[in-house]
Amino acid sequence: MIPGTMTALRRNNVTVHGPADVRPMMFAHGFGCDQNMWRHVWPAFAEDHRIVLFDHVGAGGSDVTAFDPEHYRALDGYAEDVLAICHELDLDDLVFVGHSVSAMIGLLAAAAEPNRFGALVLVGPSPRYIDDEGYIGGFSHEDVEGLLESLERNYLGWSATMAPVIMGNQDRPSLGEELTNSFCRADPDIAAHFARVTFLSDNRADLARVRTPSLILQCSEDVIAPQPVGEYVHRQLIDSRLVLMQARGHCPNLSAPEETVAEIRSYLAG
Amino acid sequence: MSRTEGGDQESFEELFEDAPCGHLSSAIDGTILGVNRTFERWTGLDRTQLLAVRRFQDLLPRGRIYYETHYLPLLLMQNRLNGIALEIERADGSRLSALVNSVVDRDRRGAPHRIRTAVFDATDRSAYERELRSSRQREQETAERLQRSLLPGEIPAAPGLEVAVTYRPGVSGLQVGGDWYDAFWIEQPDIIALVVGDVVGHGLEAAATMGQLRSAVRALALLGLGPATLLQALDRFADRHDVGSMATLVYAELDLRSGSLRFACAGHPPPLILQPDGAARFLWEGRSLPLDTRLGTGTRAEATVQLERGSTVLLYTDGLIERRTSSLDEDLGRLLAAAASCGGQSPERVAGAIVRALHEPEQLDDVCVLVART
Fold first, then answer.
1. Under a CB-based contact definition with an 8 Å cutoff, are residues B321 and B331 in contact?
2. CB–CB of A146 and B63 under 8 A?
3. With contact defined as beta carbons under 8 Å apart, do B170 and B177 qualify?
4. Number of C-alpha atoms within 13 angstroms, CB side, residue B345?
5. B63: chain A residues, CB-CB within 8 Å
6. Is the ipTM of this structure higher than 0.90?
């Protein structure tokens, strides 16, 4: 490591649980909130997996000073961060569980360094959110504008008076003492940038580059990643299984953690 | 319910139905289970159009993504959420600007079960916020334009000359700091002036001083004084107008025909020359004290060196090299090593590589690097 450079573990607020000598399992949060999105899911795997959680730069307890619009101009920059964490923790045969946009980020990472990854669990993946000719992503550019507007109007946990408290407090307090709205707190400028990168991305062509065995968890009535999108991902990924969940909406990790855990377990058991 | 003075007893039903806020309860998937009369009145939608037929998020045409990525996850994690700004679509297609509070009701096993939401009409508040936001944006744009005007817009280009600059203000939120760079023609297209300077302090005040010194250098350079005399005149300017005392700068005139570099260094780190063969060296000649030191600067020194074609000149400020933990010799040694590893690269790449190699992210000083290749 070059002195003075930020390590990925610090930059991405990486937390590790469970024994060190078992199969590693990384959970990646999607656009909007932070690693707490997985709080009802990861403990179920902590006994027989080495659990790795992190925050994307700009979210949660990440180091916002590490944000560089150039590095993060596309999802590949976020995938490089995932790989940097893999390198620093020397993770192999990794089970990568990615929610929402992080499903795509995991796919990009697995395409770049397939040897690191043993399996991908893609929760509500979408390679492109905006409708295109012959493709229904579910959204229009106007929806993305609406999102940016909502972000601008709701500085969740990030008013000017709150920011110094957050900035000076990289070691997060225990959950009980969490600042209100902190799970979805984000530097407003970075959040707007991540929103654009996420919802204007088109990674359909990258799906064919992935050979890693993948489980696609498709919720019903998920407006962010509608069923036809999940089916599209399934068709494009060479070694994938598509599971339609009972859970409705876009966040089964919060609304239906038991079902989410059970599906991942059954897939990993083969 | 207690009796009020008027003797009327208000029923729970009236309290709920005609509360001064809209009430809405929904299933976890958003399906609307109940609303009060206030909600019906404000939206123009009645129960038959809502209950079991529509989901709360269906009423948020601009907020569909936000609902799924922020509102619902946060609500499920915290069990409550207050003061979220949303726009609810009315029956006639117009939108109600609302602030909403929500709580999650959990069943006996602790599973989320139902969401109760109170909706407040925030029309005036939203309009006011919009005005505040746009005035903030205008101010920010004005500030940025003013700041950018303190630095040169476009760097001159000519056949046989490439110039690149890396500039990083040390104070976050500002576009400029106390460091500056400049490049302008003395005699187009043969003699170009290259300047890098550093005024004392950080932030906006330092930037304002920097802007004055930069303009003064430009004005004086037009007189064709040459480096040493220019610095003397700049001393008088600084003294007379009480601006930029103790600032440092390097001023150089590069003759593109002959390859001669005539320069003077007022208390500034020495220019670095990277030869086409990859050898790097500092120019330790032409040195004198910082501007207007009140110690009596006397005459200013200058020097001239002959550059081989394809040489690279590197001017920079101390923010690039200085570390708290090392001596100036060590700092300069690191720069020399970093430069020597950049042989043959374009100015753009040299500037980028050197800043990457030397700059520490925790460092709060301004950083400025100007790289010119003949």
1. yes
2. yes
3. yes
4. 17
5. 146-147, 150
6. no
